[in-house]
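Example pasted here:
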Amino acid sequence: MCKRLIILYFLLFVSNLTISQDIKGKILELIDNKEVPIIGANIIWSDNSGGTTSDMDGNFFLSNPDGLKNYIVSYVGYQNDTLNVSSLNPKIFLISDPELDEVSLEYNSKSSSVSLLSSANIINISSKELLKAACCNLAESFETTPSIDVNFSDAISGRKQINMLGLSSPNILMSVENIPSIRGALQSYGLTYIPGTWIESMQVAKGSGSVVNGYESISGQINTELRKPLTDDMFFLNLFANAMERLELNAHYTYNLSNKLDHGLYFHSNQKTTSADNNNDGFRDSPTGKQLNILNRFQYTNPEKGLVGFFDFNYVFDERTYGENEYIEQYSFLFPENQNYWGGKTDSEILKTNFKFGYVDPHITYRSLGLQFAYTGIDMGSSFGNKNHDIKQKSIYSNLVYNSIIGDTRSKIKTGISLTYDEYDEFIFNNNLSLNNFDISRIEKSIGAYFEYNYDDLDKINLSAGFRFDSHNKIGNFISPRFHMKYRAFPNSTIKLSFGKATRMANIFSENQKLFYSSREIIFTENSTPTDFSTMKADQAWNYGFSIINSFKLFNRESQLILDYYITDFQNKLVADWETPSLINFYNLTGKSYSNSFQAQLLYTLSNSVDLLFAYKNTVAETDYISHGRLKNPLTPSDRLFFNLSYNGATNEKGRSWKYDFTFNQVGKQRIPSTQENPQQYRLPNISERLNLINTQITRVFSESFQLYLGVENLTNYKQKNAIISPEDPFGDYFDATYVYGPIFGRMSYVGLRYYIK
C-alpha cells in the first residue's frame, strides 16, 4: 500500500512539473535565409492571464505558475502563431503577412472600465458611455461615472462643476490629448467648450498623474481624446432639445485629402432664448445665450516612415445672460446705475491652435520622439450686478518627449522638457465705491525637465517611477516625484499603489467666480493682517493611493470588485474662506487641509445585454480656517450611493435595437457655510439634506445610420429650497446665490437624434 502511494505521489509530482513548465524561446524571422531576431513581439497565454515580450535578441521567458498549455505569439504585420508548452526551448519564426492591412475585432466591450495593464489607477471611458446621458459638453459627461461628482456651482450661472477625491476641478489636471487645457481663465466655463460628441474617449486617472503631463495634478488627471479624422465617421449629425428650450446642433464631416492627409471639420452650436423660473425665486434658472464652436483638424499619417502629426484650429464664441427675469442685458456693462434689476452677462472669445508631431522608428518601434505645441488666446468679460471681471489670457505650451528602452522592452524610459507661458490681463471693478478693485495682471512662466522609468514584465509587476524638476518665476524651483505600481497578486486580483507630489498656482478669481453672485466683499489676509494677492503662495500637496481590483464569477456571471482609498495632504493651499456671509477672504493655509476618499465599486454582468454598476463613496475633507478652526470643506458630500443599469439589446435582422440606461444617485449630507450672522429670515441650516436623484434615457437604434433618444434628468423633480438668499433685494447686504448643494430647477426632459454616414 505504501509503495502504491509513493508511486502515485511521484506521478502527480511529475505531472505537475509538466503542466507548470516555464517557457524559454526565441522569436525570429527569415530575411534572405538569415535568422533575424524580432524585438518587442508579444507572447501571451491563450487565456490572456499574462505574457511577456521579446528582448533585443528576440529571446523571451514566460512563467507558467497556473499550468497553462497554450500561448500565442504576435507582432504587428505578421501572422499570429499558437504553440503548446511541449516545445521547451522553441525557435519561433513569424511569417510576414503583406495582406494583413487591418485586423477587426468585434466583441461586447464595456463602455467604461478600469485599466488592468497600467500601473496608474486609470478609468477608460469610451464614447459609448457618453451616449448614456444628455452629454452635450465635457461638464455633462460624468453623470454615469461614480468616481466623479457633478453639481451646479451656483444658482444663477447654470455652470456645472466636477469633484474628484473630495476636491474641486482646479485640483484636477484637465488635458485634451495630453495638452493641459482647462486652466487659467478657462476654469470658469472651460468644461462647456468641449462638446461631448467630439470626444472619442476619456481617461480618468486617480491620484498623482505622470510627470510627463505636468506638475499640477493634485487629485488626478482627466485626459480627453478627440475624434481623429482618419478613423472618424465620414459624416455625423446630432440634434438635441430639452424642456427648457435649449437647442443643440453637432455636425462632423471628415474626408481624405490624400493617402497620407485627412481633414475633419467639427461644428457645435447651442442656443437658449427663453427664460424659465421653475423655483419661483424671481431669477432665471439658467442663462439665455448662444455658443458657436468650430474645430478644424488635420491628421498626417505616414506609417512607412513612422510619422504622424495633428494640426488643430479651434474657435469659440460664447455669450450668456443671467439674473432676474426682468433683467435687460443692454444695460449690463455701460449703465449699471440705470438698471433696476440684478443681472449680468459673460462674453467669451477663444482661439486655440495645437500642433502635435510624433516619430516612431519603423525598425525599432520602441524608440520614438514626440513634440507638442499649443497656443491659446482668451478674451472673457463678465458682469455680475455691480461687479465686473475682465480677463485676457495668452498661453503657450510646449512639450518634447523621448521614449526608449533600457536593455529590453520590459524596461522603458520617457524623458523630455516642457515650457509654459501665461500672460494675464485681469481686472476686477466694482461700481460700488465701498468695495475693492483689483488689478491682478501678471506673467507666469515655467520650464521643466522630467524622467520616468517603467518596468513591466506583462505578468505580475508593472511599476512607474518619475521625477520632475521645474523652475517657475512665481513659485521658484520645485520637484515633483511620482510613483505607481501594479502587482497581480493572484490570477484575478490586482493591487495598485501610488504616491506623488503636485504643485499649482491658483487662478484666484476664475476658480471662485461663483462668489461674484453675491454681495460679498473680497479681501486678502495673511495671519489676520490685510495684504494683497501677491502674497498668495502656490498650492502643494502629496497624494497617496491604494486600490484592489478583483475579477470573479458571481452566479456564473462576470463580476468585478474595486476598492480604492486615497489621501490628499496639502502642505500649502490658497484658502477661499466664505464662512463670514459678508466676506470672501483669501489667505495661505496655516494648519492642515486634507481629503480622504474611499470608494467601493461592483460591476456585475447580469446577462449579455444588461450590466449593473453599484458604487459607494465616503469622503472626509477638512481645512483649518483662521477664525473658525477646523471645518469640513463646504458643499462636499460626506458620502454617495450610486447605481447604474445599462441595457444594450440585441440587433435584429433589420439592424434595429433598443438601449436603456437608468442611473440613481443618493448624495450625502453637505456642510453649508455659516449664515448665522445674517438676520433670521436669511439663515440656512448648517447641514443639507440627503438627495435622491434619478436620470434615465431610452434609445431606439433604427439602423447603423440613425438613432432617436429620449431622456429625463432629475426624475424625482427635486428642487433645492432657498437656493438664493434674499432674492427680493439682490443689491442688498444679504444677497447670495452660492449655497447650492443640489438641483435648483426640477425635472428636465430632452429628446434628440443621431445620424451617421460611415
